Recover the amino acids of this structure.
């Protein structure tokens, strides 16, 4: 049995419409029309222990709602969830002992108190022994460098410093599962790097299962083998990241040339001419880059060339914009 | 047990971060008393006061001691978190939301008692013609204060559940605390009420919040009567806490959690 399982999971919200102007406002006291929003629809999910999965989708796709249901904060409208054999909403407190959560835009640190106070609270809540606590804080400090601002009130920390604390807070009790909801939002490259190192280290060394929602392509590329893509509440892809990229984008051969290029070979899908260069879109499975290059060089005069690997960013952009239906 | 104490500590600790705020609210409380004293003294001078002035002044001052110390509020705490969606942070902890808030507010209450309640009491003992209670009533006063805190907490928790529907807490809080001040005896001594009106007040839970503890301190209620006050407090705590629990169960279903 998988560590996290959901079956036909649904969450529907009612959004009330307030009419316009004073009349609409008064009317809304008496009768309110509402719309039903299907935040998550028919979601099936299986995540095994030790996995690190990327959970992606455009804004409003239902990622956070899923995380809130998995953490037991929201009750599903219908469907089944089991996290480590428990219903997370009915056994919210038991489930909470087993998990760590970072909501990237909602700090759990105590705003006016020194960082260490928030950690002392966590230590008691999650029943971490003194010994383990000291050891772990020291360990976290090595990667996240918390001691620089350990005694400072949280309100004085930068966003990056706060997020480093949040990460440490989520992993402090070595939970079975950590849900990270946009942990790198708004951070600079160096901090992102450090946070990713930390997440990878915890996953590898402590076998902590990580579910990561993010809009940052580098996060996914760096950390996740498997991704789940959500679109308007429905799962549209679940599998290896590489497969998705292969399926979605072809490689491109970019040429520097003055000639008009026309190639008709199997596997060549398109020839484009953005900003003075020529880009030949081709399918690697049908024609190799070497064969294609040979054919081009036989006929035309080329001063420079390069091969563009498919990048995940364009794949994800495409999915967000168009869904998976095409190609 | 450790985790609950830790929430108490955090509540207390957080208040120490706003020391200036604590000083200001003590000053505000003293200014309020000065004004109220002027009003009651004027009423007394006009010959309209049928009871001794010193008793009224003592009562009003004790009302401030009680409200400064144990009148707590949940609405502000919840509405801020519900509006901004940060309530997820409370809900992801392996401790019930209610106990988290309760323990945290105990911490704040202890701080308020030390910095706002006790100083006003000392001022009263120094500058007013106030009797100190007998030892048994002094202990009774402390017990009544503890029960009063629990009663105010239960009531405020119940009204704060409205935040999940309205998403705005300050209006609810203002209404609750104004009503509470009038009916509990913080605003004026309840023994001045005519008999008819007094019997209406008797039916409400507010009297047990301030009037009860004050009467124990002034030795107006001793022995049996003191126990009656405790009994009434406990009765209302149970009734209102049960209603609060039912409301919370409904609120949980209603919860949407704002934003991303």
């Amino acid at each position: 049995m998988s560590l996290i399982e959901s079956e036909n999971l649904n969450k529907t919200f009612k959004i009330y419409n307030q009419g316009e102007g004073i009349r609409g406002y008064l009317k809304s006291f008496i009768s309110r029309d509402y719309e039903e929003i299907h935040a998550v629809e028919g979601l099936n999910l299986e995540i095994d222990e030790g996995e690190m999965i990327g959970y992606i989708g455009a804004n409003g796709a239902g990622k956070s709602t899923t995380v809130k249901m998995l953490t037991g904060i929201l009750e599903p409208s219908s469907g089944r969830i089991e996290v480590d054999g428990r219903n997370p909403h009915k056994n919210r407190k038991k489930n909470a002992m087993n998990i760590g959560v970072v909501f990237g835009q909602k700090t759990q640190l105590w705003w006016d108190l020194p960082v260490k106070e928030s950690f002392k609270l966590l230590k008691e809540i999650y029943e971490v022994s003194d010994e383990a606590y000291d050891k772990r804080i020291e360990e976290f400090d090595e990667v996240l460098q918390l001691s620089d601002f350990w005694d400072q009130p949280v309100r004085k920390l930068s966003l990056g410093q706060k997020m480093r604390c949040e990460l440490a807070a989520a992993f402090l009790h070595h939970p079975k599962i950590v849900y990270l909801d946009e942990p790198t939002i708004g951070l600079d490259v160096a901090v992102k790097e450090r946070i990713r190192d930390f997440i990878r280290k915890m996953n590898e060394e402590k076998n902590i299962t990580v579910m990561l929602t993010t809009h940052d392509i580098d996060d996914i590329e760096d950390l996740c083998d498997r991704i789940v893509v959500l679109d308007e509440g429905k799962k549209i892809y679940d599998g290896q990241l590489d497969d998705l990229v292969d399926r979605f984008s072809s490689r491109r051969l970019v040429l520097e040339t003055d000639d008009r290029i026309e190639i008709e070979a199997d596997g060549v899908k398109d020839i484009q001419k953005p900003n003075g260069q020529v880009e030949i879109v081709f399918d690697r499975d049908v024609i190799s880059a070497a064969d294609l290059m040979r054919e081009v060089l036989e006929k035309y005069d080329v001063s420079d060339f390069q091969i563009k690997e498919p990048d995940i960013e364009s794949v994800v952009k495409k999915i967000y914009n168009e869904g998976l239906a095409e190609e | 047990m450790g985790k609950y104490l830790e929430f108490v500590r955090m509540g207390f600790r957080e208040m120490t971060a706003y020391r200036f705020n604590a000083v200001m609210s003590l000053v505000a409380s003293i200014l309020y008393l000065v004004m109220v004293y002027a009003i009651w003294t004027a009423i007394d001078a006009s010959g309209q006061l049928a009871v001794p002035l010193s008793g009224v002044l003592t009562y009003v001052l004790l009302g401030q001691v009680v409200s400064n110390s144990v009148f707590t509020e949940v609405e502000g705490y919840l509405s801020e978190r519900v509006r901004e969606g940060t309530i997820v942070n409370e809900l992801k902890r392996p401790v019930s939301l209610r106990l988290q808030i309760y323990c945290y507010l105990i911490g704040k209450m202890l701080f308020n008692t030390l910095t706002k309640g006790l100083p006003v009491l000392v001022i009263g003992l120094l500058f007013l013609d106030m009797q100190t209670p007998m030892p048994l009533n002094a202990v009774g006063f402390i017990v009544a204060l503890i029960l009063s805190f629990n009663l105010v907490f239960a009531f405020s928790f119940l009204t704060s559940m409205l935040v999940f529907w309205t998403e705005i807490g300050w209006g609810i809080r203002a209404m609750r605390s104004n009503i509470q001040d009038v009916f509990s005896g913080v605003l004026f001594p309840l023994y001045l009420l005519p008999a008819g009106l007094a019997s209406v007040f008797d039916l409400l839970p507010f009297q047990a919040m301030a009037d009860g503890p004050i009467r124990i301190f002034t030795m107006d209620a001793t022995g049996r009567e003191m126990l009656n006050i405790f009994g009434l407090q406990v009765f209302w705590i149970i009734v209102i806490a049960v209603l609060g629990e039912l409301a919370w169960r409904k609120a949980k279903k209603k919860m949407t959690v704002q934003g991303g």
